[in-house]
Amino acid sequence: MKRIVIFASGNGSNAQRIIEYFRGRNSARVVRIYCNNREAYVLKRAVQLKVPALLFDRNDFFHGSRVMNQLKQDMPHLIILAGFLWLIPESILSAFSGRIINIHPALLPGYGGKGMYGNRVHQAVLDAGDTESGITIHRVNEQYDAGEILFQAKCAVEPGDTPETLAARIHRLEYKYYPEIVERMLDEMG
Ligand code: GAR
Questions:
Q1: Are the C-beta atoms of 178 and 18 separated by less than 8 Å?
Q2: Which residue range forms the structural domain that includes residue 110?
Q3: What's the CATH code of the domain at 122?
Q4: Positions marked active-site
Q5: pLDDT digits (tens, 9 = 90+) for 26-82
Q6: Which residue, judged by its Cα, is nearest atom 6 of ligand 1?
Q7: Does pLDDT of 190 surpass 90?
Q8: Residue partners of 92: CB distance under 8 A and separation at least 6
Q9: By alpha-carbon position, which residue is closest to atom 17 of ligand 1?
Q10: What tens digit of pLDDT does each residue of 103-132 get?
């Protein structure tokens, strides 16, 4: 049984989807949610789904040892970012080299970088008049949205789309593919 942890800052619908996907299988289990925002709805989901959560602040993450110590105990095969908005510090990147992945709600390298998350991304795609958008799953490195691209899927941008309607279409792609790509990566680890 492989071990997964999920880092999330907000709503946590992808986190829930991944937890539920692996509940129906014996291959892996989400052992903890790591969250940097005490108001985040993902913390309520964690309670409902009976997944332990670690709430941490900026100091814990960038200067302290709480997060690293918990990770050492959890021993995850894969660290999954799902709507997590801080850069990952070098200490964690090097301890889990190549084993941290993120999902981004657009076709990178377009529409990435600092401050590009959630509806801001969709608004930028609409402002540019693009006719398609999509999702990107990529490895995490020391820069925002710049690590090796592992998977992309596309969808149409429809006339009359708002950031909300486009977000809903993108979320459907995320829910379908993020658990599958995680599962494939875990399989490939042997
Ligand atoms: C997702 O659409 C994810 O791709 C995006 O935040 C949303 C989180 O939704 N991530 C980024 O924009 C990262 N730059 P969720 O909390 O409901 O899973």
A1: yes
A2: 2-189
A3: 3.40.50.170
A4: 104
A5: 899 999 999 999 999 999 999 999 999 999 999 999 999 999 999 999 999 999 999
A6: 83
A7: no
A8: 67, 68, 71, 79, 100
A9: 13
A10: 999 999 999 999 999 999 999 999 999 999
Letter for the amino acid at 183? E
Q: Is there a contact between 13 and 38 (Cβ–Cβ < 8 Å)?
A: no
| H, E, C per residue of 74-113 | HCCCEEEECCCCCCCCHHHHHHCCCCEEEEECCCCCCCCC
Rounded to whole angstroms, the Cα distance separating 114 from 179 reads 25
CA of 39 to the centre of ligand 1 (A): 16
Whether pTM exceeds 0.85: yes
Separation of CA 120 and ligand 1 centre (Å): 11
Is residue 164 scored above 90 in pLDDT?
yes
- Residue nearest atom 1 in ligand 1 by C-alpha distance: 83
If one residue of 16, 85, 171, 181 were mutated to test the ligand 1 pocket, choosing by the most ligand atoms within 8 A of its CB, it would be 171
Number of domains composing the chain: 1
